[in-house]
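P.,

For your records, the input lines for the assembly:
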Amino acid sequence: MPRRAHPDRSFTAETIAIGSELLIGGRSDSNSLHIAEALGALGIELRFKSIVGDDRADIMAAVKTAVARAAVVIMTGGLGPTVDDCTREAVAVVTGRRLARRKEALDGMQARLAQWGRSPNKGQLRQALIPSGAAVVPNPVGSAPGFWLTWTGAIIVALPGVPREMEAMLESSVVPLLRSRRQGAAGGPRPMARLVFHTWGLPEADVDAKLAGLVPARWNVDLGLLASPLGVLVSLTTNPRSRVLPDDLATLADGVRARLGEWLYAEGRETMEEVVGRLLAKRQLTVATAESCTGGLIGHRLTQVPGSSAYLDRGVICYSNRAKTELLGVPPALIETHGAVSAEVAAAMADGVRTRAGVSVGVSVTGIAGPGGATPTKPVGLVYIGLNAGDGTIITHEHRFHGDRSTIKQRASQAALDLLRRWALRREAG
Amino acid sequence: MPRRAHPDRSFTAETIAIGSELLIGGRSDSNSLHIAEALGALGIELRFKSIVGDDRADIMAAVKTAVARAAVVIMTGGLGPTVDDCTREAVAVVTGRRLARRKEALDGMQARLAQWGRSPNKGQLRQALIPSGAAVVPNPVGSAPGFWLTWTGAIIVALPGVPREMEAMLESSVVPLLRSRRQGAAGGPRPMARLVFHTWGLPEADVDAKLAGLVPARWNVDLGLLASPLGVLVSLTTNPRSRVLPDDLATLADGVRARLGEWLYAEGRETMEEVVGRLLAKRQLTVATAESCTGGLIGHRLTQVPGSSAYLDRGVICYSNRAKTELLGVPPALIETHGAVSAEVAAAMADGVRTRAGVSVGVSVTGIAGPGGATPTKPVGLVYIGLNAGDGTIITHEHRFHGDRSTIKQRASQAALDLLRRWALRREAG
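Structure tokens returned:
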């Protein structure tokens, strides 16, 4: 078969995500992002991602293309019990193998189903069909086994598309397999390293300016910036051609931290709500929220963190003016004079929720999420954030956000949590 | 160059999304989902999606693969002002064209930047480089122009990766271009049609059983099922080989509706919160929420809908027991006797929030989102939903959800909104 000569093919990978819903069904492939990270840690660079529907010929075409340019091909999806699921058949045909029911695949599936008090039905029995010469990849979480085989010098791995199952199998079987193969290979590149830093409150151009000249060009480390409604993400990524030592990368990371200062709110996979929760829990502080335009998003985010009941006492979603008065004691005259979207009302909301809940700190948001509700002086995107702490600290911030309703809500929630984070950083243990 | 013979190549498409952040940066390619829909409406089937990094050789490889199997290739990304952005160069090299600054591309960019009071910098001038023989695709939203050209019988279109710009250019230039090409072609398949139905409350196997035998095999219409934390999605999709008439598809859709009954909560792009909002607004009903384990997610979802202030008065996030008592009047003895996670407390929360807010209906959720908080009799995933309407209607439902904390919150919010939907459906105009 044709093969494109690629200088680094031995350490490159491709993912193939299978499923018509990924083509036209409005669902994104999230598995490949997880795989990219796991492979990168092994020094294997994910260079291509492909997505195909539940079509045997198209899957076969994708496999042929992939093995011609990558040494590791990880397929996800198409291993289910229905006739639509044709990854098994496609791999068998393209690699010239026979499909047969494999005892160990069947045993594993039966053992798992037995835990749920069930036995395999006809469709599930199809899931025990494995191409000859392939090794079974056990599924510790679900019923569908995977498999792997080598063909024309490439390793082809087939895993289920359900993220929880895919991730478990990647970790328990595929990573050890690839690690052992990597160790067998002579020389070769180092593991890739990737450090991620999350900032909030600075435009992308300002983050760029702060980091200018930080990374020496000869180090072959990529400095990446990526803007989203939740801020600008900064990444330092080595590639297999990088020749930096771990200490060098640590020095670069320190440089990023020093230059970004308090604009840097988290690193790696940590989220804003996790950082806020960690700071509040450590200092034994408690919080209550008063949300108008965010409608509960701040509470939702805070409660995404396990254990958040230790510091979140309550939240109030005061969408109507009457609710602001009844639940938070905001004087009707204040709303009348300044409008519900004003620094004065934000301050009164934060004060009201803190006092009534008896917590360390109250945080509030009022704004115009749009698309309606704007006035000549108050445009869509105008948002006031308030913070009130028992020690007399009263802060209000005015923001003018751009974007659609959902984006404005996201940004407003991020601004409120960031204000809480900065306050908690300064606050002595309660 | 090699070309795979494909029976339908003339009506198939491939997307190539370009950007290293899409490979390893944790960002999914959402543009291709939008493109798939636009192409489907033209009768052009998106069969493959590829994702590559900001690497000229890899982009070139992806273009070569794509034109060998698709007649329409839509590239997104890599048209920015930095040296990382190499889509222009890759297309020029692979198709053997010369890159030169194009006056009309420059004029459009200057006109747009002038609106913002700016003029093109050096990087932006690179964005006016267009392969010879290609047509410029104007960007009505941002500064980066796109282009299109034909090569070896395929149309190659290059658009920016920013979704707002990509979508505007797709609609204003690419769809008209492809429509005119389609009309020029002899015969050819019909536009694809796709109908989507959203269900909640039935396991996938039960949805499958209800729909068994609905679609005649000879019609060549795909019946798809897709489970997610928000329920099971049902789709009817024609393909270019389908020979059903619009009336036949309407008959199938009626069959789906009849068989799914009230389990069907929405169709197409409509969300549960939009359906609930529409029903409440139409009947002039008002609602207040009392959330414990969902932490504000129900309020957040309801307020994602523009105009929701017409029916959402307030919400209470009562994470602590004290908040349940103070904000909702739940008797401490009730919590003591039955536990905070109980049908009795859910009912008291719904009653309390409805009465205090003076709204038509109160909805409540209390449960154990995990991973901690379980007891021998109350496992993670145990959730009680309550509804109280002024007319004496009192409903509580017990659910036992599986999944992680985020999934349990999602499912609990969906169950609460669905209960509200079913109640509003039965309720006469207020």
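Two observations worth noting. Residues 64 and 161 of chain A are 20 Å apart (CA to CA). The longest strand of chain A covers residues 45-52.

Regards
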